[in-house]
Amino acid sequence: MLIDTTQNPQRNSHIILQTSNPRPIAWIVTEDENGVINIAPYSLFTPLSFDSPTLIISFRAKEDGCLKDTLNNIHQSKKCTICMVKAEDREQMHQTSQEIPSSQSEAKEFNIETKEILEGYPPIINSSPIAYFCDFDQEITLKSDSATPLILSINEIFVDDEIIRDRESLDIEFDGVGHIVGDRYRS
C-alpha cells in the first residue's frame, strides 16, 4: 500500500508514530521566571549531531492551541534538562503528560523528586540515570505550523555511576521507556 502524505496529516501522524517505534521517552525539565519547575514527557526527539552534540525535539501545541509550557520556558530561559525515563517511573511519567496550569509544578503535583546537578540549568529527576543539560540553538519553521522543532545543544551529560559497566570505555547499560502509540509503552 502506498499512502499519499498530502491527503491526511492526522493519518500521517498516526502511521509515522506507529512505524517509527519504539521511540525513547524523556522528561524535559524547565523552569519559568517564577522558579516553577515544569516536567513533561516527550518522545518526538532524536540525536541530530555528535561532533557538536545536538538534539532535535518537536513540540506540538496544547489542546487549546497554545504553546506548551516547556516550549515557552525554553524560549524564555534558553535552557532545559532532558532526563531519560526508567521503567519504574512509567506511571509518574504518564501522569506528567496531563495538562496542568503553568503556575503549578509537576514535581510538586506528582511527588517527583528533583536535584540540582549543574548550576544554571533546571534540576534533574532524582531517579533518572541519564540527563542532558541543553541550551537552545535554533527553532525551525515548518511549512505546517502544527509542530515547532527546536535544535538544542547538549553541553553536559550526567550518567549515574550505577549504570556504567566499564568506566574506561564508558559502556552504559540502560533500558529506558519507549513510546509505542497512545498510552502503550515498552521498557
Summary keywords:
alpha+beta; 14 strands; globular; single chain; 187 residues; three-stranded antiparallel beta sheet; seven-stranded antiparallel beta sheet; 4 helices; Pnp Oxidase, Chain A
Blueprint (SSEs and pairs):
Blueprint: H1 9-19, E1 23-24, E2 26-31, E3 37-42, E4 45-49, E5 54-60, H2 69-77, E6 79-84, H3 90-95, H4 106-109, E7 114-115, E8 124-125, E9 130-139, E10 147-159, E11 164-166, E12 171-172, E13 178-181, E14 184-186
Antiparallel strand pairs: 1-13, 2-3, 2-6, 4-5, 5-10, 6-9, 7-8, 9-10, 11-12, 13-14
Please, could you describe this protein's structure?
This protein is of the alpha+beta class. The chain has one domain: Pnp Oxidase, Chain A. It has 4 helices and 14 strands. It has a 7-stranded antiparallel β-sheet, covered by helices on one side. The protein is globular, with a radius of gyration of 17 Å.
Q: Based on the structure, what is the oligomeric state of the protein chains? A: single chain
**Structural class by sheet pairing and helices:** alpha+beta
Radius of gyration: 17 Å
Q: Categorize the overall geometry.
A: globular
The CATH fourth-level homologous superfamily: Electron Transport, Fmn-binding Protein, Chain A
Number of domains: 1
Count of DSSP helices? 4
The first-to-last residue Cα distance is: 31 Å
Question: What is the CATH topology descriptor?
Answer: Pnp Oxidase, Chain A
Which percent range fits the helix content? 10-25%
Strand line-up across the major sheet: 3-2-6-9-10-5-4
Mean pLDDT: 85
Query: What fraction of the residues are assigned to beta strands by DSSP?
Result: 35-45%
The helix/strand order is HEEEEEHEHHEEEEEEEE
The CATH architecture term is Roll
Low-confidence stretches: none
Largest sheet entry: 7 strands, antiparallel
Number of strands: 14
CATH class: Mainly Beta
